[in-house]
Specification:
Keywords: Pyridoxal phosphate. By secondary structure, this protein is an alpha/beta fold. 40% of the residues lie in helices and 16% in strands. The chain binds pyridoxal-5'-phosphate.
Length: 257
């Protein structure tokens, strides 16, 4: 055991133990949800951006199946790696980075693409819809800019209803799976619930009313390392957790494209 620390040049992160910790935290948060909220178990998406294939593999071997990446080139490289497709055949990749319609053809190169979480406009949906050749429709979420910050991408709450209607009626190769937000960082929970989470909840109500579908048909992807427990208490059904699983990210080695 001691050897491990001497041999490895970088900080040793116990990914399997971290996953156990997060799953426990999720279970506790589910118990503290108001009974008015849907009681289904939230999905954990392990965000592996900038992390190695070895790290992804460790998480996979610890039972993790859903992974998220937010640099498209990195996702194509990781998902198409021959080792990955052999060792992690059942992996489910979520693309959670900024998306534009010109990226649609690159997105099609991802192996085991499970979901695109970051659609923001109808033209982007069309670009993916016309290219997707999967056996079942590609799951998509609409990213909503709930905090109204210019630095964050995402449809406005009003526009997300229009984009939902478009996907629902005009994109047979896409399945509208839910809404996603990043939200503003550092909310002080002593002042009350996170307004970003409350707004995403309201967006879903509006979308479900417009489409005349039950609320249980749409997931809410909200909550990251710092606030996944609070997000679950606020009704999140999908949390995206990176650094709490894989350790802090080092951006000095990576290009930001
Ligand atoms: C990086 C990232 C995350 C994970 O962030 P952590 O704070 O490391 O958990 C979640 N969602 C998106 C969109 C991200 O880019």
């Amino acid at each position: 055991m001691v050897m491990k620390y001497k041999v490895m040049p970088e900080v040793v992160v116990d990914i399997a133990a971290n996953l156990v910790g997060i799953r426990n935290g999720m279970r506790e948060a589910v118990k503290r949800r108001p009974s008015s909220l849907p009681q289904r178990d939230p999905v954990l998406v392990a965000v592996s951006k900038t992390k190695s294939l070895a790290a992804v593999r460790q998480a996979y071997e610890a039972g993790q199946r859903h992974f998220g990446e937010n640099y498209l080139k990195e996702l194509v490289m990781k998902s198409t790696n021959p080792d990955m497709t052999v060792i992690c055949p059942d992996i489910k990749w979520h693309y959670i980075g900024m998306f534009q319609k010109k990226m649609a053809s690159v997105l099609m190169r991802v192996t085991n693409l499970y979901m695109l979480e970051t659609l923001t406009a109808s033209q982007e949906a069309d670009a993916v819809n016309s290219r997707w050749k999967g056996t079942e429709p590609l799951r998509v979420m609409i990213q909503v800019n709930t905090s109204g910050e210019e630095s964050k991408s995402g449809a406005s709450p009003e526009k997300c209803v229009d984009v939902s209607i478009h996907i629902y009626n005009k994109c047979p190769n896409l399945k509208l799976s839910g809404l996603m937000t990043i939200g503003s960082a550092g909310h002080d929970y002593s002042t009350g619930p996170n307004p970003d989470f409350e707004l995403l909840w309201k967006c879903r109500t509006d979308v479900c009313n417009a489409l005349e579908i039950p609320m249980s048909d749409l997931d809410l992807s909200m909550g990251m390392s710092a606030d996944y427990e609070e997000a679950i208490k606020a009704g999140s059904t999908s949390v995206r957790v990176g650094s709490n699983i894989f350790g802090a990210r080092d951006y000095s080695q990576t290009s930001k494209t």
